[in-house]
Design a protein that fits this description.
Elements: E1 21-25, E2 31-34, H1 36-42, H2 46-49, H3 64-75, E3 80-87, E4 93-104, E5 110-118, H4 122-140, H5 145-162, H6 167-182
Helix pairs in contact: 3-5, 4-5, 4-6
Length: 183
């Protein structure tokens, strides 16, 4: 069941501070597990998600460059934290602070991925949206998807480097600054 052309509604849904959205995938990103919070927030039934590519929840205006960074990091057998904009089955939006790790077998081969996602602070989402706006604008200048993703990732790398940050440092800086504001 690939997502049919659902149009974003402009509405946002969220979940509780004490809730965690959890999923597991095979090495290619096909969903093998989704917890009850994931099912409720995404609006999909379990049978609609299991066996589907995780990008079934990809929001169409989320920068492809962030997904390239995510996959490059996982393929290097490293974990990544990222702010991600998703879309529900009905077209609503929800933001997550994702922590994605590769799952390795005893020989070190990637056998899947495990993702825990928390509700991000609204101040962090506002700031990350500015960076992602720059990425989307760069992606719009390219006709080929892979070139667009590579170009936007390179651009955001330069923009963040001007601030003296890598993407990881940017995410951790946002977490530190916005969490201290609200807790």
């Amino acid at each position: 069941m690939r997502r049919t052309s659902v149009t974003p509604t402009g509405r946002e849904v969220t979940f509780g501070d004490d809730e965690v959205v959890v999923s597991k995938t095979d090495p290619k990103g096909v969903i093998t597990y989704a917890n009850d919070v994931f099912l409720r927030v995404s609006g999909y039934a379990e049978h609609e998600l299991i066996g589907q590519p995780h990008n079934i929840i990809r929001h169409p205006d989320f920068p492809r460059g962030v997904f390239k960074l995510l996959w490059d990091t996982l393929e290097a057998k490293q974990e990544i934290f990222a702010y991600v904009k998703n879309m529900t089955k009905s077209g609503d939006t929800y933001w997550v602070l994702a922590h994605v790790t590769p799952s390795l077998d005893a020989s070190g081969r990637i056998v899947g991925h495990h993702s825990w996602r928390r509700r991000p602070e609204p101040a962090a989402v506002r700031e990350v949206e500015g960076v992602y706006d720059v990425m989307r604008a760069e992606e719009a200048r390219h006709t080929r998807t892979i070139e667009a993703a590579e170009a936007s990732l390179a651009l955001v790398g330069r923009v963040l480097a001007e601030r003296g940050l890598s993407y990881d440092e940017f995410v951790w800086d946002l977490i530190a600054r916005t969490t201290s504001l609200t807790r």
